[in-house]
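Data availability (excerpt). All sequences and predicted token strings are deposited with the supplementary files. A representative entry, Cysteine desulfurase, is shown inline so that the format can be inspected without opening the archive.
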Amino acid sequence: ALEFNINKIRNDFPTLKQSINDNQLVYLDSAATTQKPQSVIDVINEFYTSQNANVHRGRHTLSEHATTLYEQARDKTAKYFNVLSKEIVWTKGATEAINLVSNGLRNRLSKNDTIIISALEHHANIVPWQVLSEQTGAKLIALPVNHDGTLNIKQCCDFIKQSKPSLLTITQASNTLGNITNLEPLITAAKNVDSLVLIDGAQGAMHLKPDLRKLNCDFYVCSSHKMLGPTGLGVLYGQYEALNSLDVYQTGGEMIDKVYLTHSTYRPAPAKFETGTPNISGVMGFSAALDYLNAIQSSELHRYEQELFKYAAEQLVTIEGITIYSNLSDNIGTLSFNFKDEHPYDLATLLDGYGVAVRAGHHCTQPLMAHLGLNGTLRASFCFYNTYEDVDIFINSLKECIALLD
Ligand code: PMP
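Structure token line:
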């Protein structure tokens, strides 16, 4: 792997080179979606320019070539997470991957079952379980979360032991706070009571690059667009037996074995869960995104992101009137904060005037906002393509915006 070279990296991301409102763009919204390196953009362009064909159907050269690249991308994804290729299902995002699993359990759960979620979850990892609970009668309960949004792991493990869930679903890192979940003990506690475990890796997949075989969860979901890849593509990992035992989600072409007029048989996973023409160019783009990530040593990437985050957090805490909600000691690089009682939208709008892109609001985590007693926060989320200069501009702009409000 290459050494971490921030100047080269900056140069690889064309969107970062522009001005917004006459200022150099400082992009601090990577938790919403990451920017794309030129290599990803080129691969998508190349696919439509000279390779376009449908996969898995044709016997002609273009179709076979597209199929090879498409399946190679699955292999690459499996390798990134240290799992088997047949355990990787393409979806249209983390959201669809969670819906695929929740739908796949619709005939397995009943009123005697319990599903555990947490107040830290994105709506995408809450609402599908509410629907499943309504459909099956399964009890939906939440892990105990401390007042500050952190977890007392011992208390959580005891809770799992006592509740004996059929499914535990939890995020690897909070999209709002950036807090990293200490997953291993929770998964062990769940496995000790024979529970299935789903991990929402939308925020963790790139920053934390998990070894899923070691992690020992049954399901793991993530989104290409939060890992330098294109939108409209997600990944569902399922430990093969757990995956294959899920009921079918969407049905139609490709996922079938034999179709008669009145009934059909299905192929085994992953084909069973991939119906219709897939997002082929998206898969090609994601493949290039993984190449990009694989070329950087993940320990170097992590070290740089952590140093940058620390640099930002240390300056943010010194600004009078700022309250930070993120756990600063175990974080993927996301700062959630407010200034006094100011509405976060106002500061976000002012910051945009300085070319600084941050997010404001509830970040699709209304239960977490309720838990913290907030209506919303400002969120500055960092990625390895951000620089120390980005942090300086962010902090100085924030100070100027605050002076305008005060
Ligand atoms: N879970 C988490 C933790 C997220 O941050 C997101 C995206 N904000 C999702 C799930 C949903 O991902 P997508 O919108 O790409 O389906």
